[in-house]
Amino acid sequence: xxxxxxPASMYTEIQREQPDGxxxxxxxxxxxxxxxxxxxxxxxNPVKASKSHQELHRELLMxxxxxxxxxxxxxxxxxxxxxxxxxLIRQKKEEEEAKKLQxxxxxxxxxxxxxxxxLEKEQEKQEDHAPEFIKVKENLRRTSMVTGDEKAA
Length: 153
Fold this sequence. Notes:
67% helix, elongated, 153 residues, synapse, single chain, mainly alpha, actin-binding
């Protein structure tokens, strides 16, 4: 209610008209048609007033009239997704065929390579745990061997 704009005499009349204590929900002022009262205006929803929302709503209505569901996609998007899916399936099949076509010799080489990598990793771990003086001693041996080989040549 906008009672603060009313003269005191109108305020008392409104109070007399509302025997339930002025419950706005059951007995609003603007229904009376009193020209002195300021009638409330409906507020605009900024989302609904936006151009993009209106265009989206219009498009949804058109799709509904045509019988297209919301979950249906444009043709171009469906074709692209279908191509992507087929391409992924083809790649997986090619990878599987490549694994099947590996000769026993290639498989054995791969196993040996993996074992060598594993052994190298274990050696690095052991070297990391060795005391520093052992590491320095090994480095000295290597340098002495290199210099000794250079002298012989």
